[in-house]
From TrEMBL:
Entry keyword set: Glycoprotein, Vacuole
Listed name of the protein: Strictosidine synthase conserved region domain-containing protein
Strictosidine synthase conserved region domain mapped to chain residues: 150-237
A Pfam family per the record: Str_synth
Family that this chain belongs to: Belongs to the strictosidine synthase family.
GO cellular component terms, semicolon-separated: endomembrane system; vacuole
Location of the protein in the cell: Vacuole
Amino acid sequence: MAIVLVITRVTMLPILMLLFTFPPSVLSFTFMQLPLPSPAMGPESYAFYRGEGPYTGVGDGRTLKYAGPNAGFLDYAYNTPNRSKAVCDGNTNPSLGPTCGRPLGIGFLLRTGELYIADAYLGLVVVGTNGRLARPLANSAEGQTFRLPDGLDIDQLRRQVYFTDASAVFSLSEIPLAVAANDATGRLLRYDIETNTTTVLLRNLSGPAGVALAPDCRFVLVTEYIAKRVQKYWLTGPRANTSEVLVTFQGMPDNIKRTPAGDYYWVAVSIPMPNAVTQPMAVRIDGFGRILTSFSLSDQYYNKTISEVQEYGPALYIGSMDTDFVGKYYF
Ligand SMILES: *[C@@H]1O[C@H](CO)[C@@H](O)[C@H](O)[C@H]1NC(C)=O
Ligand SMILES: *[C@@H]1O[C@H](CO)[C@@H](O)[C@H](O)[C@H]1NC(C)=O
Ligand SMILES: *[C@@H]1O[C@H](CO)[C@@H](O)[C@H](O)[C@H]1NC(C)=O
Ligand SMILES: *[C@@H]1O[C@H](CO)[C@@H](O)[C@H](O)[C@H]1NC(C)=O
Ligand SMILES: *[C@@H]1O[C@H](CO)[C@@H](O)[C@H](O)[C@H]1NC(C)=O
């Protein structure tokens, strides 16, 4: 498969400009924390189904479902048959990762209510409509075992799951090493639900963390955390099977999520600042890579990286590997 890299648009905005591009309405946001059940940490990504949720994967391997302000988050799914709550709940030890699991990207197949999960240790798995134990679907492609499955989005019409393997070398606990090594062994993949086969779409990606399909699935956007940019991979049309760099950021982009309406995408970007401070930013781009909105979340996430910004209903849901709550902005 020919991969053509064409740099059409590289946007390098100075930080100050980024800070001043938000619309005034952002100033009136109110922020709410939905607490996770102790000791769960790290709601990395969100999914919703028929108005219910958010569902989110946490650091100790569970997927939780928000059941309202009184019940809070309840256990929904787990990814290995040998996961025990006694050993795994609250676990932060990476060597227990293969036993406990670690859901990162999640997404519902809306027709059936099945939840597809990119698990950092176990590969692509799926869980049925009542949650509980997931079943494995894929843990390698072209003979190469996944090392760090991460972002996920679903083509609902064609029943295809787009997901990333962020590195062929470094695992979840080794991300700082991957950044230091400038790793470029990540892949963009597509799992076909009908045929149970996985296809490699892009190779040599530098920390592919998030993936988002266009409204009509003409293209798919993939973030590169280490290369600090977003690539657009065309799925149809004359440029099908080729990719181009869409936009470059000053910080590391993690997940990218399309808004419910239109060709707009929220990207969670963490910018390294002087004195080892991290500046978490919510950035909204369009399908041409133009930055439309961008604002800092430092008041709520001081010096923390954020992993996701997802618009749902009247709110933006903020994900982070470093918090014990789900952040919710009303606007
Ligand atoms: C738990 O299961 C996973 C695969 O499902 C395996 O890799 C791991 O070694 C198992 N752990 C234990 C302690 O049996
Ligand atoms: C799907 O393919 C994987 C290998 O990639 C295999 O292990 C698994 O059994 C297959 N599942 C079904 C339902 O055919
Ligand atoms: C891209 O990755 C492949 C392995 O998947 C490797 O053989 C090749 O050398 C890489 N190409 C570049 C330009 O790094
Ligand atoms: C893209 O790749 C697919 C599968 O390999 C192929 O069927 C299709 O013709 C390709 N399209 C273009 C425009 O190259
Ligand atoms: C921000 O966090 C990093 C590590 O996460 C730490 O090294 C640094 O000292 C922190 N900076 C401040 C100002 O707290």
